[in-house]
Amino acid sequence: MGRRPGLTDEKSFARDRARHYAFLEIVKRCVVMTKTTTLDWNAIQVGDPITPMKIDVTATVVVAGAIATRDFMPVHHDRDYANSQGSPNIFMNIMTDNGYCSRFLTDWAGPDAMITNLAIRLGVPVFPGHTLTYTGSITSLRRDGDDGIVEVELRATNELGEHVGGTAVINLPGPRT
Known about the structure:
30% of the residues lie in helices and 29% in strands. With 177 residues, the protein is α+β, with helices and mostly antiparallel strands. It has a single domain (10-172), classed as Roll (Thiol Ester Dehydrase, Chain A). It has a 5-stranded antiparallel sheet, with helices on one face. A hairpin with a 2-residue loop joins β3 and β4 (147-158). α1 packs across α2.
């Protein structure tokens, strides 16, 4: 492999390559969409649950999420630094949480659904070795012309309690002519 411009030594090259492979690992684990059709507006009602989603959080997931969102704060990739700040381990950043919340919703609602509002609040941290379980339910349904507007509440919990909680608004497009 040839050197890329800007790398000054082999250690930098190895570190950059490791980051690249960490990012590819999270992409392989997280990009697979489980649904290929959009949710049928006529098949849902207030109170219906959203199909749960589980994420096994590893150090790779935490670090790759931080890299992908360009959050280079050391608490997301350097365990010793995180320890010096009072944390038992590295922990997931909020931008990665936003991404997983979006994935949870679009995996359920389908490829034509659009999240028009997502509001989350952080709770307990999530560390490598935890499992995040996303759940939610429909809180409101209304029409906007031909489109269906679905309001939901969602949460992600781990072994320590609620990691994220919040609400979202999803637009389900009406029939295409």
